[in-house]
Structures are given as C-alpha cells and as structure tokens.
Amino acid sequence: MADVIRNEISALLLFKVKDPALHNVTIVHVEVSNDLSRAKIYYACAPEMAAKVSSGLQRAKGFMRSSLAKELQMRYVPELVFFSDPSIEYDEKMQKIFQEIASENEPGSV
User: Fold this and answer.
1) What is the mean pLDDT of residues 70-86?
2) pTM above 0.85, yes or no
3) Cβ partners under 8 Å of residue 89, min gap 6
C-alpha cells in the first residue's frame, strides 16, 4: 500500500497540483501504519524551498486525500503526514567530507 500511495502522490504533484512551490518535490518514502490510519510521507526538496514546500503540502493535503480516495477506490484514506527527508542533505554532507579526505590524501599534498 505504501508504494501505491507514493506513486499516486508523486503523480499528483507532477500533473494535478497547481502550486508552483510543489513542482520540484520528490517523494522519497512512504510508511503506512498497520491499521492504515496514517501514512508518513517523506519528501525531498531544495533546502531554500523547504518552508514553501512544507506549507504547500499542508495546503494540498485535503486535495491529495480526496484524489487518493477516487483513484484507489478506497473507502477510508489514511491521514497524510508529511516529513522532510534528511537523508539527501546528509548524503551531500558526507560526499563533501569524503572529497575533503580524498584531496588531503592525494600524493603531493602536505
């Protein structure tokens, strides 16, 4: 169910949501509770857009739930809770650290 919700929300963001702040959002991961009452949706965006994206997702939440109900023919749609996924920022930070270590270990550097 989590993958289905992730695919549908991604499609909604690409094709149906009109908020320009949400056009460069990537849905990274979805976790659905065992009783299907809540879906935690992890997203990634540019750090400078984080505040706009967060408020845009809150505004679009109702639209997304109703669209999920129609598309998936679900009687009850889980509550959508959005979280910024820190893994991309962490990955970028780690890449910079690895590059610094590699440049320090190059032959000829002191």
Assistant:
1) 90
2) no
3) 47
